[in-house]
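Format notes (please read before filing issues)

Several people have asked whether sequences and structure tokens are stored in separate files. They are not. Every record keeps both together, in the order shown below: the sequence lines, then the token lines. Line labels are part of the format and must not be stripped during preprocessing.
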Amino acid sequence: MAYPPRPHQEHDPAVMLALMKARPFAHLFTSRDGKHLVTRLPFAIDVTDGKRTTLRAHMNANNPQTAHLDGADVLVAFSGPDSYVSPNWRTKADHGATWDYTAVNVFGRAVIRPEREFFNTLIIDLAAAVEPNFKGVTDKPDWSLKDAPEGYVDALFPKLVSFEIAVTRVEGVSKLHQDFPAEDAQSVATHLEKSAHPESHEVAKLIRGAIRKSD
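Then the structure lines:
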């Protein structure tokens, strides 16, 4: 049996890339000698021919995960919107409660990049990817590395470990009631739109999109 079930497998590179770019703050998982470590980090996503080929990030040099990061096989888990779904929201309450969500799991091999040029470019790219999303929060222009105080980056650089991940495999999950009748999925979306939780509204929009795609 395939897992996740085939209706929940996401294979569209554009959909997976959109999720990763919209939510670049992801979990980095590593394992060595039976010990598992995880850190949440923002990632820069490099794309070639529409496919994710490299991820870039940095972490605190005191993080124990850095000790075995170079050459390590890693998993980076990107989480999309999610929401609880009550049995009461379907046309028939003949199934239990569940949780609808989207996610992208990226597998690859990490390599530490100690070059200052790599670090500078990473900081520029991380800021450029998200600063425009917060227009109106301040009257100042989008922040970039050139705006850092003199000497700040020189002092910060030795305290961080920059790295890149060569992507070997990507798995997408879109669990959006695709394996239920369309009327059930529509009913769930309608109820989610009434929720006070913004994430539920996002899931409702995704469910309606999945229904249109299947028509």
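For reference, the curators noted about this record: The CA atoms of residues 8 and 108 lie 22 Å apart. Strands lie at 9-10, 25-32, 35-42, 44-48, 51-60, 73-85, 98-112, 160-175.
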